[in-house]
Design brief:
mainly beta, 8-stranded antiparallel β-barrel, UPF0311, 9 strands, single chain, 1 helix, UPF0311 protein EJC49_15095
């Protein structure tokens, strides 16, 4: 049997996800829980462009070791009117002083911490049915009131 092909990454799009102020739920059995409403944004890419709707949130858990488990769900409306559901699960972690600066909304070089996601798209629009079959990964950065995610298709 010949060796299996090594997966490669092809840029799909960049997401700018605008956020409202976090709602703190407090300490729970798995860690500190918070809900961060998603209030808009944009999608820019060669095959996927549009806007992020004011609909959805990140249901985040901050573990005892300061690792953040990201669990988001929101919606995209493409420039030609298709609606796409996106679920994005991931992790953000790094040195305590770097994460504290990120938490205060200070500008931090994303190379100083780890933020990776697994975006999954779903739509009933036949023009974008190809999204339903993709495996993607994302690399991200947290800004004061937004998250930036570059999404890559695994080929």
């Amino acid at each position: 049997m010949p060796p299996l092909a090594k997966p490669e990454l092809v840029h799909l799009c960049d997401l700018t996800v605008e956020l409202a102020k976090p709602m703190e739920l407090g300490d729970a059995p798995r860690g500190r829980r918070r809900i961060i409403p998603i209030v808009g944004g944009k999608v820019e890419g060669e095959r996927l462009n549009g806007r992020i709707l004011n609909l959805g949130a990140d249901w985040q858990t901050i573990m005892a070791d300061a690792n953040a488990e990201l669990d988001t769900r929101y919606a995209i409306e493409t420039q030609d009117g298709a609606l796409i559901d996106i679920r994005n699960f991931g992790y953000r972690h790094g040195p305590a002083e770097v994460l504290a600066a990120v938490g205060r909304g200070e500008p931090v070089d994303p190379a100083q911490y780890y933020m990776r996601t697994l975006p999954r798209f779903e739509t009933g629009d036949p023009r974008y049915a190809w999204l339903n079959r993709l495996i993607c990964v994302g690399t991200g950065a947290r800004l004061a009131s937004a998250v930036l995610i570059s999404v890559y298709e695994v080929t």
